[in-house]
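User:
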Amino acid sequence: MDIAGRRVVNGGMQSDSILVRESRSEAAGTAGVIAALAARFGDRMTTAAAVREAHGRGEGLRDLFAPSAVVWPGSSAEVGEILALCNAALVPVIPFGTGTSLEGQLQALNGGISVDLSRMDRVIEVNAGDMDCRVEAGVTREALNHAIRDAGLFFPLDPGANASLGGMASTRASGTNAVRYGTMREVTLGLTVVTPQGRVIRTGGRARKSAAGYDLTRLYIGSEGTLGIITELQLRLFGIPETISAASVQFASLGAAVEAVMAVMQMGISVARIELLDAVQMRACIAWSKLSGYAEAPTLFIEFHGSPAAVAEQIEQVRGVTDAFGGSAFAFAHATEDRNRMWRARHDAYHAARGLAPGKDSFTTDACVPISRLAECIAESHAEAESLGLTAPIVGHVGDGNFHMLVLFDPADADERRRADRLATSVSERAIRMGGTCTGEHGIGVHKLEAMVLEHGAGAVAVMQAVKAALDPNGIMNPGKTVPSTVFPL
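Assistant: Predicted structure:
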């Protein structure tokens, strides 16, 4: 299948070698750009095969499509130089942060230049009084939190991986704290963006609200590098909570755990995080993270933020709800080291799940539904995985209706790969049918392109295509991602 015009070899993706296919004219254009970049950036540009391979895929889809070269800019102005050069030569550009994306956003489907922003890692300013900051796109969330900790502030979004903030904005990421603090859409006040033509623009500002013109900040958030490259971000910060406490509770069935989450949210109990791990995922985490004292049963990890009195009240409310749904082994993690141990196990869930079947490949579903449909959606998806004979552990930020299945498959087994693809597709379709979305936080990339029309309708997708054509008329920005290539009339 030809995804968004991608050149396909032997009818499918190739994962065991660098795959770059260019016509002679494209190759000549790319060679000229590489020569110019080498002259301008010196050892900050490379065509070394190992480096290109490392930039040719993320942590999700393992199929390898390596770029023709990798370059490391040090400023927005230098990013502008790179884009202007590539735009004039019609050479694709693929932005790169830390390489943790899950939907193929980093794959250079037609070769081109990978623009690695990891050296743009300055915290430019911190405004403690207004609780905001400005950072370069290569700053990671952990580095930002380290820089602002002494000011009594923290940046709450936690997608699990130590992702770059530019990458998090590009995919509209969220994570375990989203149920209380929101997503990158809510915490981003403004951006610096380099357009495909090399122009540096600023969107938004430091004000908490504005009614001035089109909301360009929200346009670029979630655009996955298809409209320009985010180089700086103005972000909201939050005060470190006076009291942080965590708890875990286990259930006899997956359905009971999900019903308990729904009740907690419908009662309006203020939790900072509420994470679900099914029995298979708990088995993986117990082995991988050396968790002791847990059964291989559906489990909720919960965290509470606030004053001592507020946290105590939240705990009692949640405990009352979980007891009503048969929750057992309710355990507290008050000490920092105990909380960190629990959340480290949750963050390592991806690697733990892959450890269930060494040698197998995987990809992750990312459905998000209205909370009232969550139990039904998870139950149907779990049953389908079992009927297809697939191992697919479930984890999720279920407080906002978002859950993931890590679908494991043997890349050498074509039938198992087809069954895995079928499961991923049906999870997306099921979520959309229930009033949800095919992606709560990972983005579209190449894996979910076919769901875009189903979710938004051909008319809305046509508008997206028009925006893409207007801002990137030469189609150089991360081509083949996010917006389907099939033309729909406005």
